[in-house]
Design brief:
The protein is 32% helix and 22% strand. The chain has eight helices and twelve strands. The strands form two sheets. Strands 1-2-3-4-5-6-7 form a seven-stranded mixed β-sheet. Strands 8-9-10-11-12 form a five-stranded mixed β-sheet, covered by helices on one side. This is MBL fold metallo-hydrolase.
Length: 245
């Protein structure tokens, strides 16, 4: 399957897991492939970006296979506004993200426009925004078939009020992979917007490290893949920045 990942413009991390860095905002999307199902992590910043992700996934999966599950790590426009492009897919998010989607569509649209998304594209995506069908309170295991089980873990708040991490245990001789959302950022300093919980953020990173362990690959919401040492360093930086232990 490696040539298929490359042909679609994706980076293969381990045999059944890959990721792509999207243009403009450098948001990372991920794909986990089981024998019976496939999980997309993040939906992109617009319907066009979501549709492109879905098309790329079909190219990687081959045949008539398609994405069956979608996990949204937190409710920021560059991660969620493409969700409506995944019609018929089971959508997962942390408890509370549904309230943000129900009451905060106008703010999501406005935030996207402030960051440069075309106003019409932002309005269309916000109008069609898909609320998650499944809300994760603690942990939720998805069985994708072929021995591929994925753990969705609600480990926030931190970067936002509703942060979800995705752990893919090692399969086929590969390392564990943790999709961190924007709890971890590599291509710039972590961003703390109005919905962040700064005093809780270091503790969320502690839970992230407990989830993945020392040998895992950690995939930030923005930037290159990192290791546990990088996450610990960012945790220390955030603790100093926000005055918490």
């Amino acid at each position: 399957m490696t040539p298929a990942w490359e042909a679609a413009g994706w980076e293969r991390l381990v045999p059944r897991v890959g990721r792509v860095r999207l243009p403009v905002w450098d948001c990372t999307a991920g794909l986990v492939v089981g024998d019976d199902a496939a999980l997309m992590i993040e939906a992109g910043s617009s319907l066009a970006e979501g549709a492109a992700l879905r098309t790329q996934a079909r190219r990687i999966l081959g045949g008539d296979r398609r994405v069956t599950h979608l996990a949204l790590t937190h409710p920021h426009f560059d991660h969620v506004l493409g969700a409506a492009a995944f019609a018929g897919v089971e959508v997962y998010g942390a408890v509370g993200i549904d309230t943000v989607f129900a009451k905060g569509r106008d703010e999501l649209r406005a935030d996207a426009v402030r960051h440069g998304l075309d106003p019409d594209a932002a309005a269309e995506a916000a109008d069609l925004l898909v609320r998650p069908h499944h809300l994760v309170c603690g942990e939720w295991t998805l069985d994708l078939g072929g021995g591929v089980q994925v753990l969705l873990a609600n480990i926030g708040p931190g970067h936002s009020g509703h942060d979800l991490a995705v752990l893919v245990p090692g399969t086929d001789g590969g390392r564990e992979v943790v999709f961190c959302g924007d709890l971890v950022e590599e291509s710039g300093d972590p961003q703390a917007g109005p919905d962040a919980a700064p005093t809780h953020w270091p503790a969320a990173l502690d839970r992230l490290l407990d989830l993945g362990g020392e040998e895992a690959l950690y995939v930030p919401g923005h930037g290159a893949t990192v290791d546990a040492a990088f996450v610990r360093t960012q945790r220390a930086t955030l603790a100093t920045r926000f005055g918490v232990s």
